[in-house]
Predict the 3D structure of the following.
Amino acid sequence: MTTEVDFQLNWEPNGFQAPYFLARERGFYDEEDLDVRFVEGHGSPFAAEQAGKGRREFALAGGSAVLSVRSRGVEPLAVAAVTQKTPAAVYTFRDAFGEELDSPDRLAGRTIAPSATKTRILAAQLLEDEGVRDEVDLLPVDEHTHHRVQHKLVDGEVDAAVGVVTNGYELQQEHDRTADELRIGDYLDVYGMTIVTDPEFAADNPETVRSFLRATARGWVAATEDPEAAIDVLVERNATLERTRDVERRKFGVAADELQWTDRLRAAGWGHHDADRWQTLSETLAETDLLDGDVDPDAAWTNEYLDADADAVGAYAEQVER
């Protein structure tokens, strides 16, 4: 008997989501007797809330959004850590910046525009850790749209912007100017994207959760082995992505080859959570106004539903030859 489930995405389809679409196209969910409907998203907080309230069986959401939503009394549960590192990044044009942006201390004396509250928080923590926070003018978030920070950078109103990896590369392609990206995940040990569900749904349907995660892990293996095929599926889903195919390919490549990889992943397998990484993220967010109340980071995640006997989960590193 086939079980129908909704998978709430954090945003519209893009390269970061390629493994999920490939998993569905290749029948991995079907083989687990799952009929998965993808729902385009409106950001990680929305996705986490939809899952936490039981409106969607599964959702894709950033770790910071999971904790933020839990601080408001909704309890999304992270059942897989998809990317072990945050995708947040500081980016700039080298000709305007005057030098290569290759370390956080280069940002001293600069003005930076963040795209969202969470990326601003992570940038502030990065600058604090590097001892240059007081020397940087980190602007408040523009309330209109995250794309405005790119306009400010292009127009020379700011020295750098904060967004996600590949934002700088996108601008480089569009404006034919060398761009540099400083990946915050290389400096802060905090989570990126996670798969979340409603704790009650997971408790009542443990095998459905395990099946979904097994199929999803297979999607990550398949996409890593054949990234062009994964991007082909995305383009079939949305033909307008053909125009940005190179950017979408790069997004997935960064996620698969860099944002995933930690010693924890190599030792424990795909999707496994690290308590210390969640604790660090919680402490970072608690120092800001992002959390509306106390949060127990250990209650926000579980490894219970990860099937270590499945090669795509327990032997993930060997499957993708890392």
